[in-house]
Amino acid sequence: MVTKGVKQEEKKQLRRDILARRRSLSATEIADKSQKIAEYFCTWPHYQVCETVMFYLAMPDEVQADLLITDALKQGKKVCVPLLGAKYGEMNAVEMMSLDDLSVGKFNLRAPDSNKAKMIAPSLIDLVVVPAVAFDRQGNRIGMGAGYYDRFLAQVRVNTVLLGLAFTCQLTENLPSEEHDIRMQWLLTEDGFLSCRT
């Protein structure tokens, strides 16, 4: 039996290796791959029928979700993004009307203004677009290690669509997973969609 300590060590090593892979992409590669991903996403039937979508606000070396956010706002969808809570590991979904409303918040990440934030209940979200350091083809993910998304995704509806967004270089065969881990139903990279349903 694999002990928890061994699993955590394995995750740490995988996180280091795959982050190095992602960070080796040039700004041009990131922009080109993000553009391809946006083209797949914007014509995806699951996205087209949903009313409320939660996106993440990308760091410079992640898939740039701003293109997706811009499209969703243009389509008249309700868009929400993460706002980190006062407690470590706590995250809320707040409505966003424009990318211009963002400022630099905790951990030097873009964030909505917490004083004007209109919270959206997790149960109202139809589709959550989830970032990660790594995904495997079964939909398991490794994040940065703080558990923000694990806690948040435990609160969404059973029929909420969970989409992992990543570059192909972030996919791996099998990630160590635990009982409480919530799997994605779909992954999207610059090579297209991958269904994680078994």
Distance from N terminus to C terminus (CA atoms, Å) equals 24 Å
CATH topology, by name, is Rossmann fold
CATH class: Alpha Beta
Q: How many beta-strand runs?
A: 13
Shape: globular
Radius of gyration (Å): 16 Å
Structural class computed from helices and strand pairing: alpha/beta
Widest sheet, order of strands = 6-3-2-1-7-10-12-13
Counting DSSP H or I runs of 4 or more residues, the number of helices is 5
**How helix-rich are the residues, as a percent range?**
25-40%
Please identify, by name, the CATH architecture. 3-Layer(aba) Sandwich
Find the CATH superfamily.
NagB/RpiA/CoA transferase-like
- Name the poorly predicted regions: none
Order of helix and strand elements from N to C terminus: HHHEHEEEEEEEEHEEEE
Percent of residues in beta strands? 15-25%
Largest sheet, in brief, is: 8 strands, mixed
Tally of separate domains: 1
